[in-house]
Write a structure and sequence with these properties.
13 helices; about 280 residues; Helix Hairpins
Length: about 280
């Protein structure tokens, strides 16, 4: 006999109580933050003026700041940025309640119910063997809930690299996937050859761009098979490039515009050796 939603939520609640910090302290801190947000919304001219639209870019900025701290593995920074993101969630919920659209309680209950429903291997009688089974179940349940196309849930405004990864992950859940990593590598080689052919044939820039996009898409898929997050990998390379170039700037004995590429490259190699 399958457990009812009430039983599922009770199990979730019991597990949460057992594994979490002092509930009174947590409740007091959370409600205190909600109260501060209410006071700011009522008394501060800037907070009172904000809308969903005006907060949107600030929320994106806060999310990227959190991502930066995660890359640096700065746990003090992560804690601070998580607080900023939490504040934004409470802020949006307050604005939503003012317009009778939704309130903070509905936001919390909504995500709690979603998590319970989408984890039937925890709160139901579904059996899974690994994380891939969990992902497949998640997508199946999500499709039943929303009754939309498989890719409809990928936000259009996502950065292109992250969007490509999400598209590949989602289609893989229904079997639209290479069987082996060697096939993925072969696809990368194929796309590189097609790009080279277009360059050799002096094709129009639009055709070269199209082939370059195909190559990037294949490389992102290759990263996925290698269990590498391509966004994180590229950002680490960005930071490495910045670090090495700043080394060149520090040690250069004259303006960089007066230095040869060979001279700068020697300093670049020194930077690599000093890491």
């Amino acid at each position: 006999m399958k457990p009812t939603l009430e039983q599922k939520e009770k199990k979730w609640d019991t597990t949460y109580h057992r594994n979490s910090m002092d509930q009174e302290e947590l409740s007091r801190a959370f409600l205190g933050l909600v109260k501060i947000m209410d006071e700011l919304r009522e008394g501060c001219p800037w907070d009172r003026k904000q809308t969903f639209q005006s907060l949107r870019s600030l929320t994106i900025e806060e999310t990227f700041e959190l991502a930066d701290e995660i890359i640096k593995e700065d746990f003090r920074g992560i804690k601070e940025e998580l607080g900023d993101v939490l504040l934004h969630i409470i802020f949006y919920s307050r604005i939503g309640s003012e317009g009778n659209h939704f309130n903070l309680l509905e936001v919390i209950e909504g995500v709690s119910t979603k998590l319970v429903n989408r984890h039937p291997h925890i709160y139901g009688d579904v059996k899974v063997d690994n994380e891939e089974d969990v992902k497949k179940n998640w997508e199946k349940i999500k499709q039943k809930e929303k009754k939309t196309g498989l890719l409809a849930g990928v936000p259009r405004s996502l950065p292109a690299m992250i969007k490509a990864l999400r598209l590949q992950e989602k289609t893989a859940q229904v079997g639209f996937e290479w069987d082996h990593i060697d096939q993925v590598k072969a696809k990368v080689d194929e796309e590189m050859n097609e790009l080279q052919t277009n360059l050799q044939n002096n094709c129009a820039i639009e055709e070269i761009e199209d082939e370059y996009g195909d190559l990037l898409f294949a490389l992102i898929n290759y990263a996925r098979f290698l269990k590498i997050d391509p966004e994180t990998a590229l950002e680490k390379t960005n930071r490495k490039f910045i670090r090495r170039f700043e080394y060149i700037e520090r040690l250069a004995k004259r303006p960089l515009t007066e230095m040869s590429l060979q001279e700068m490259d020697q300093l670049w190699e020194q930077a690599k050796q000093n890491e």
